[in-house]
Write a structure and sequence with these properties.
Blueprint (H helix, E strand, L loop, with lengths): L8 E3 L3 E4 L2 H12 L4 H15 L9 E8 L4 E7 L9 H5 L20 H12 L4 H14 L1 E2 L2 H9 L1 H7 L16 E2 L2 H13 L2 H4 L2 H12 L6 H6 L3 E3 L2 E5 L2 E5 L6 H12 L8 H22 L10 H4 L2 H13 L14 E8 L5 E9 L6 E2 L6 E2 L29 E5 L2 E8 L4 H14 L5 H6 L3 E3 L10 E4 L4 H9 L4 E4 L9 E7 L4 E6 L6 E4 L1
Helix pairs in contact: 1-2, 2-4, 2-5, 5-8, 12-13, 12-15, 12-16, 13-18
Length: about 525
Amino acid sequence: MARTTRPVALARRGMVATPHYLASGVGLRILQDGGSAVDAAVAVNATLGVVYPHMTGVGGDAFWLVYEAATGQVHALNGSGRAAGEASAEYFLSRGHRAIPTRGPLAAVTVPGAVDSWCAAHERFGSLPLTKVLEPAIGYARDGYPMCAGQAECLRAVADVLAEHAPGWEVLDGAEPTVGRPVLLPRLAATLHEIAVSGRNGFYTGAVAEEITGTLRRAGGLLTMADFAAHRSEWTEPLSTGYRGFDCYQHPPNSQGFAHLMLLNVLEGLDVAAMGDAEYVHTVTEATKLVFADRDRYLTDPGFGPAPLHHLLSKDYAAELRAQIAAGPVPAAPPAAAAGGDTTCSVVVDGAGNAAAVIQSLYHECGSAFVGGDTGVVLQNRGSFFSLDPGDVNRLEPGKRTAHTLMPGMMLRDGELRMVYGTMGGEGQPQTSTAVVTRVVDFGHDVQRAIDAPRWLYGRTWGEQTRELRIEDRFGPEVATGLRRRGHTVRVVADFDEVMGHAQAIQVDPERGLLMGGADPRGEGSALGW
């Protein structure tokens, strides 16, 4: 049996898995207090913005899948923000920019969408008052928490960026970022309190929005009060495909989730379970090259350019892609803009069988590194993923949502939830989600073992533009040799390398009334149930 880092978590009445142990504890507490899966997911993501502020926060975006046990339906909620009304390619090009800056006030070119998504999800599926749901996050911000290793390491790595753009950020209180030192965020606590009391208006139309947009405008940024006030999350229909008797769901564009479904369609026609490690990684990687070419050709805000999803997700098209793999080798996809990977994935299942999967992000580590004045809000730089090329499908346009890497996942069978899953990691998200699904369905792993198993990553992520195939050292030299023999440029990385992202998953066994949770050892999270 493959080595695992911990046993799979088992429970019956509820389960939470997140990339930070304090957030997992908060989610479990909300469930135990009678909260729904959505209540717990809101509490978790608000808390992550406090205790994991380099990865996510109030100033970022979020994508949701929500499973409603009473109806067997999966709902998709798009919590991504639109570009400022004054944002255009001409604006940046005329000022000498060949690309949107990745840091500073001009990087914060899209409205933060996460808070509205919390409020929209809570209004529809919440059980507890929002004040109760946000209470733990407010407490950690007000009273403090010990800095974790990941946060300390990140702050040291981007110290120069933060010194230039975020000298007033509360977490930069002049002390050296070290594990265990106390972090207090009173200004962020006040912002969260305003949201708890006033809902979305506490962030998008009142004093908080005025402070954020006023600070941005004085620094040369583009977002206005009108941009904030106009923002709304969008409920929409998820995408799905069948995989060996299961129905796998993903968020539609502007999420890249369809890339994962395309990969599953390709693999369904192959005997994955019979493959050795080298053949398995090779096959998924070759499929990834083809799928990414389609993704990069079509992925954008569907209001500005709908993708031909019916064709891309058809089984006939998957057969065409399998034929190209068999004829191989598949050429590398054309170079594309480097993608950030600093994100969080949280999954929750409550005692009634409802579930939520949420991917929330600031995009790059610490986002734009620009703080919205006295609000304590670090603003995302997701808009820097827009292209200034007028021929690019993801070109910048006013009011447009950029292409997004965030992609929460769910798997059902006959209308019953069987797994809720996702990961952070930019380009790695479709690949890791595919690894988790195939290892559970084809290889019979539980979710912790599926997450622990050695992983691979093809292409760009975490700000790097590369077409290497990175594999964890635990695969062994035979796998590396086999992949090189098949034509891949292989780089062997650490046993549990953080570049692979942090995956979380909860598996549901309805026959035994059992929940099985897994959290990624590459992060600092845990799966907790009761």
